[in-house]
Amino acid sequence: MPDYKQFPLSDTAEGLTEAEILDWRVKPGDEVTVNQIVVEVETAKAAVELPIPWAGVVTELLVEPGQTVEVGTPILTVDVDPNGAPPAVPAGSNGSAPAPAEETPAETAPAEEEMKPLVGYGSKAVSAKRRPRKSPNVALGTSNVPNATLGTSQTAPAAPAEPVAAAPKGGYVPLAKPPVRKLAKELGVDLHELSGSADGGVITREDVHKAANGSTSISGELPEAEASAAPAIDPASRERRVKIKGVRKATATAMVQSAFTAPHVTEFLTVDVTPMMELRARLKNSPAFAGVKLTPLAFAAKAICLAAKRTPDVNATWDEEAGEIVFKDYVHLGVAAATPRGLVVPKIRDADSMSLPELAGALGELTATAREGKTTPADMVNGTITISNVGVFGVDTGTPIVNPGESAILAFGAIRDTPWVVDGEIKIRKVLQLALSFDHRVVDGQQGSEFLADVGALLSDPSVAITF
Predict the structure, then answer these.
(1) Is residue 440 annotated as a catalytic residue, yes or no?
(2) Category of 66 on φ-ψ map: left (φ > 0), alpha (ψ -120 to 50) or beta
(3) Which of 115, 218, 252, 306 has its CA 20 to 30 A from that of 163?
(4) Would you call 9 exposed, middle or buried from its count of C-beta atoms within 10 A (0-12, 13-18, 19+)?
(5) CA triple 367-369-374, angle to 5 deg
(6) Full pLDDT tens readout for the chain, 468 residues
């Protein structure tokens, strides 16, 4: 007999609560193996590929691409014992259904089945409940083969069941997929009042739209729930609206929290980095940097790590709950990166233990991965201090906002040919501006100034590093 399991959306890292389905890698009827990637989702931090912990045959995709679902919600049904009976692809799924299996005696569905955590992730086990729901031919409390609707079950009838009118609210649970339920909630439609037009009384999007405005959605147009995910363009107003979600939503939340929690102070320093640029030109031809892209940002990263050892306050954390300042004896350097999905800040772990060639290589890998949208959520947490390279956009400086959980962020400006006084004479030099924002609860003006002066000194004359 078939053994159906529902694969839940798991917490991929660090307490995420929801994710958007980006792309299914399987379809109903496909065979899957343990650890096979079945779906790509976008969390508030990154795009993540999820593996499945079982082998079997996919019977249904429970969530459509573009839909945002909460962690723990079943998104895929798999028959892990396909040899027990021909795999059934329920009506309404993305594949064609084979001939119905022979009718089998009804069995009582287990009230709860423990689901193992995703292979490759350290999240806790997620339990998924199979809740029997009343369908036209099945009384509450009995079930057989799970059908296309999330959490529902029904016997395999010889012929399709006729649609049934909704019973009172306490009598049954409406049959509808998660996207349809979400659409009904957005439009203020009570599913208990609807009669499903699909086989078995399943409520469709069209049923919800008809209840909301008295007409079905226009052919060729996106249903409202789907259209909300795409930019909404109003030709008359010359405006467009984009749903706030994913990385943009997470960034906004974090920045508001930081701006209105930590008292920010920003200090500025203009630096002649001509010696640094000359050293860079020499090192680029060194065997130690063969195959490594040595950028000015690598020098800044090294300077931050060295200066943080002398001023540990900038690498500390304010713990409000414990009433403590936590000083870190390591540097997990965050690097702000602009990506197609928005601003992300992946971390270079233990950057203070790396040599300049290692830092340069790590920066290259980090930025390439971020731009491809492949940075994992685990790589974007637990930073200690951040650098933001605004100079790559031709910007001189700014007043960056400290990332939550950190105490300082350094903005690295554009390097420009600038008239500069050297030994009483005006010469053209390579000059940039630095801006350090810090949490004044942790870092006093003295410590912030000392740290910024140290970074400037190391960039102005890298040989100063031997004195640290």
Answers:
(1) yes
(2) left
(3) 218
(4) buried
(5) 140
(6) 678 899 998 876 555 678 888 889 999 999 999 989 999 888 766 778 889 998 999 999 999 988 888 888 999 999 988 776 444 444 444 444 444 444 443 343 333 333 333 333 333 333 333 333 333 333 333 333 333 333 333 333 343 333 333 333 444 456 777 667 767 776 778 777 787 888 767 888 888 878 876 543 333 333 443 444 445 555 677 788 878 877 777 778 888 888 888 899 999 999 999 999 999 999 998 999 998 999 999 999 999 999 999 999 999 999 998 999 999 999 999 999 888 777 889 999 999 999 999 999 999 999 888 888 788 878 888 999 999 999 999 999 999 999 999 999 999 999 999 999 999 999 999 999 999 999 999 999 999 999 999 999 999 999 999 998
Q: Examine the domain organization and report whether 210 and 150 are in the same domain.
A: no
> Is the CB of residue 41 less than 8 Å from the CB of residue 54?
no
Query: Quick one: tokens of 78?
Result: 């798999």
Nearest to 413 by CA among 353, 455, 468: 455
Q: State the CATH number of the domain containing residue 453.
A: 3.30.559.10
**What is the DSSP track for 141-210?**
T-B-EE-SSTT-EE---SSPPPP-PPPPTTT----B-HHHHHHHHHHT--GGG----SGGG-B-HHHHHH
Are 168 and 303 found together in one domain?
Answer: no
Rg (CA), the chain: 29
Write the burial class of residue 434 (CB in 10 Å: 0-12 exposed, 13-18 middle, 19+ buried): buried
Strand partners, 266: 437
Catalytic residue among 192, 209, 264, 440: 440
Handedness of CA 294, 300, 302, 303 (dihedral sign): positive
> Mutual orientation of helices 445-460 and 274-283 as an angle, nearest 10°?
50
Which CATH number is 21's domain given?
Answer: 2.40.50.100
Task: Indicate the residue type of 294.
Answer: L
Q: Please check whether residues 197 and 85 belong to one and the same domain.
A: no
Burial pattern 206-218, b for ≥16 Cβ within 10 A else e, equals ebbbbbbeeeebe
